[in-house]
Amino acid sequence: MNNRFPTPGNWAENGLAEDVSTPPREPVFNYPVGSLKPLRQGFTIVELLVVISIIAILAGLVLSSLSHAKAKGLGIACANNVRQIIVAWKMYAEDNEGKLAVNSAYNGAARMRLDSGGWIRGWLNFDGANPDNTNYLKLIGTADGETALFGKYISNPAVYKCPADRSATTIGGRRHPRVRSLSMSQALGFGSTATWLPPTTYVVFQKESDITGLSPANLLVLLDEHPDSINDGGWAFQMYDPDQRAQARLIDIPASYHNGAAGLSFADGHAEIHQWLDARTKPAVRYQTEITHLATPNNLDADWLAARISRRRDGTKSWW
User: Fold this and answer.
1) DSSP conformational letter for 227
2) Which of 78, 84, 109, 293 is most exposed, with the fewest beta carbons within 10 Å of its own?
3) The pLDDT of residue 93
4) If we measure between CA atoms, which residue out of 220, 186, 218 comes closest to residue 204?
5) Phi/psi at 134 (5° precision)
6) How far is the C-alpha of 182 from the C-alpha of 78, rounded, in Å?
7) Mean pLDDT by 10 residues, the chain (320 residues)
8) Exposed/middle/buried for 147, CB within 10 Å: 0-12, 13-18, 19+?
9) What does the alpha-carbon distance between residue 82 and residue 156 come to, in Å, rounded to a whole number?
10) Is cis: bond before 18, omega within 30 of 0?
């Protein structure tokens, strides 16, 4: 066998002098052309699809987190707004011998009366010809010769609008945001009519001293109202007793701007974002007037509201 690369042990056999000073060279192997596998270039289609899927999943997680963070931020801003107004509500009572802010409500043509509203003024809808939709003086200033009652305590009209409320009216081909999202329970207010309560059976709290039989921390004052339900400054609710749950009906509809929740404030001055449980409490927003009088028998949300709106005058059939 002719060894092309002799080793030090067979130098003599090949007629060569053994040179111990030079280390042997590494052998060079000659492979036939095309016998080497080509180096792999890039990714396979399957690997690219896997990478793209992972990126899509990560992007979805990031966007979801950002969405939740934004919603939480809007909820905090909303709670701060209703907290500012409830503070003004309490200050007004302190400055007026314990009388709660006027919360009158009128329907039809009577809504144009100057004494309509009280704590705020104006009637909202989606009619571009209605100036109340965009007139912030109805909230903090003097309009139609009458002054909004909280104007001396609140100078920023933005606190009356939930930052998550996108309702607007079209004027001259351009959309303009409406000025208000909040309404006040008609069970409160000096001179409040509270027709739907009805006031003959359930208490209308006209003074601070009337707030008995339930804790101020559980007496609802202000809440975000559904954009297709809101009109004047009063929020109407038809009371019923614990043994009448099948008769539950929502006259005015609460909003659910914050992932099915709404901003509310109470007579003790605290505010919160409350989550609604029943889908019937959260009808879809269509930005059209008007959604009202929803029959919602055995609705846990309506029960929750009934326990925080008023109490029977005779003290019986309590929700507490």
Assistant:
1) T
2) 109
3) 95
4) 186
5) -125, 5
6) 10
7) 52 51 56 53 76 83 64 82 96 94 66 62 91 92 75 93 95 95 94 86 95 94 97 93 96 95 96 96 90 95 97 88
8) middle
9) 13
10) no
